[in-house]
């Protein structure tokens, strides 16, 4: 046995050494061959990253190099094929899911302390009794206030597994001792339907901010509620809706279309066509629908508008939509990141491609709004340039055009007054929200005790509040010069809308913000003319 070992052990060692030399040669970064050299193109990036890992003179975060490289690859494809890094993936996915697991509050950080703006409707905090203005100081004994506490660490403390319990210690104005709340974390809705209310005795209004996993269900519930209130017509507001899940848009379009009506078709790289038809009895097939769009309405929003317009259903009101007719599919990359790759183009029932032109310059593509602004398209329908070769006709004889976005049946110009634009920036940027929050903190008990009915009857935003807001702007940012002039009523309206949102939710916000809205006013006028 010993003699056998003397013979085989040196032999095995020799074979191992030979394999090591061979393997080492194959891993030599200076050669053109790889360990898996069947497809050199696919191995080029991998070989480069390995080479940097092993040989570069300094330590390098090769993960960041990969992120940059993948982004550069996708930038050379089209404007909508995108890379989602691992650190952003959960947030992006959550926003499209329609809910998340947590305690359900929106909050500001004030002087290093979490202060609740409002408990989210339908969430655990609302059910437990958390109120706007409450300061959450501890979660399960862990301090949540102080300069070194990051927002991410706060969120991680408040989120958790569904059904898990968190013990909160809360400071509430007027209470001497800290309040204790034991909250079972649960699903918190991330609503995509911002508002549903009646504009007139027969015209209902539904605002959709994106197409998430729950959008059709939310829309269906809103539609049912409005029908019970007497809605025979619906204004479907898709302005500034960037899109989302195509399936949700298809389901909503199906509510207005008879069976076997074409909703859209897609065409992939090989030319294969996939058609999608209305297939069930919709709740509003016999009702009148107005679809509100503008330059911010994209993708799934354009699917709905295009499907109804090409089937001669309803009226499209507003301005030309964004022009995104590319379909993406998501592929996870195995490390928590993902790619959304364009895999097809979609077309409206008449055969229109809604995708606006794009080339190698993505910057000019995304600056298309500036081009529209300069050429006068936002002010006059006559400034919209159409290509006669992209002319189509609906079954009812209506002429429509492809080549970039949905052109509305009824055009409404954009309000371009500088003061109104400034107010919108302050509204959308959260500046007004912070001011209103600070204002209500001065008398939180009073504001929290208001019912929506009481709120609507009061002049809650008076001239004194306007003066405070102007001074607040100067104190927060000397560069902000808030002009009032003849637009004081509009400023009061927006501040009132923000206060309503913090007290009563997005439905109250949209109802007030939409007062004297040009496109909504036009829809109401069209509805009355059809009576």
From TrEMBL:
Record keyword Protease present: yes
Organism domain of life: Bacteria
Pfam families per record: PDZ_2, Peptidase_S41
Positions of the PDZ domain: 81-159
Keyword Protease: yes
CDD domains given in the database record: cpPDZ_CPP-like, Peptidase_S41_CPP
InterPro entries, per database record: ClpP/crotonase-like_dom_sf, PDZ, PDZ_sf, Peptidase_S41A, Tail-specific_protease
Entry keywords, A to Z: Hydrolase, Protease, Serine protease
Transmembrane segments: none
Family designation: Belongs to the peptidase S41A family.
Record NCBIfam families: prc (TIGR00225)
Name assigned to this protein: S41 family peptidase
């Amino acid at each position: 046995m010993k003699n056998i070992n003397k013979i085989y052990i040196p032999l095995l060692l020799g074979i191992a050494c030979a394999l090591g030399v061979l393997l080492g040669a194959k891993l030599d970064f200076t050669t053109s061959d790889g360990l898996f050299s069947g497809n050199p193109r696919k191995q080029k990036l991998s070989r480069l990253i390995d080479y940097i890992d092993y040989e570069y003179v300094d330590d390098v975060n090769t993960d960041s190099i990969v992120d940059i490289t993948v982004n550069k690859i996708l930038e050379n494809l089209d404007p909508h094929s995108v890379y989602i890094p691992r650190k952003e993936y959960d947030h992006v996915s959550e926003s499209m899911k329609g809910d998340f697991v947590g305690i359900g509050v929106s909050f500001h950080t004030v002087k290093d302390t979490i202060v609740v703006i409002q408990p989210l409707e339908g969430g655990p905090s609302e059910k437990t009794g958390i109120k706007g203005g409450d300061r959450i100081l501890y979660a399960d004994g862990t301090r949540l206030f102080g300069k070194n506490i990051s927002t991410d660490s706060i969120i991680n403390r408040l989120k958790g597994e569904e059904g898990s319990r968190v013990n909160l210690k809360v400071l509430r104005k007027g209470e001497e001792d800290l309040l204790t709340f034991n909250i079972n974390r649960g699903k918190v809705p991330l609503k995509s339907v911002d508002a549903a209310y009646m504009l007139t005795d027969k015209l209902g209004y539904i605002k959709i901010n994106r197409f998430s996993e729950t959008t059709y269900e939310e829309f269906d519930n809103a539609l049912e509620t409005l029908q019970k209130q007497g809605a025979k017509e619906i204004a479907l507001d898709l302005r500034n809706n960037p899109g989302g899940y195509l399936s949700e848009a298809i389901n909503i379009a199906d509510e207005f279309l008879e069976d076997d009506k074409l909703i859209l078709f897609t065409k992939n790289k090989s030319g294969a066509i996939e058609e999608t038809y209305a297939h069930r009895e919709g709740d509003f097939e016999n009702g009148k629908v107005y679809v509100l769009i503008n330059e911010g309405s994209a993708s799934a929003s354009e699917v709905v508008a295009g499907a109804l317009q090409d089937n001669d259903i309803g009226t499209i009101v507003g301005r030309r939509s964004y022009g995104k007719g590319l379909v993406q599919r998501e592929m996870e990359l195995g490390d928590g990141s993902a790619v959304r790759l364009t895999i097809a183009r979609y077309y409206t029932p008449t055969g229109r491609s809604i995708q606006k032109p794009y080339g190698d310059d993505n910057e000019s593509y995304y600056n298309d709004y500036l081009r529209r602004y300069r050429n006068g398209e936002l002010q006059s329908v006559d400034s919209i340039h159409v290509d006669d070769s992209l002319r189509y006709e609906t079954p009812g004889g209506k002429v429509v055009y492809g080549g970039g976005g949905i052109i509305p049946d009824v055009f409404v110009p954009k309000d371009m007054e500088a003061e109104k634009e400034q107010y919108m920036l302050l509204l959308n940027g959260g500046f007004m929200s912070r001011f209103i929050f600070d204002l209500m903190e001065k008398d939180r008990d009073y504001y929290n005790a208001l019912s929506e009915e009481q709120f609507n009857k009061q002049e809650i935003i008076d001239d004194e509040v306007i003066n405070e807001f102007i001074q607040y702007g100067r104190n927060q940012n000397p560069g902000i010069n808030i002009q009032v002039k003849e637009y004081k009523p509009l400023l009061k309206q927006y501040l009132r809308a923000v206060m309503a949102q913090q007290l009563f939710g997005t439905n109250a916000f949209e109802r007030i913000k939409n007062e004297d809205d040009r496109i909504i006013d036009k829809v109401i006028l069209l509805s009355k003319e059809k009576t």
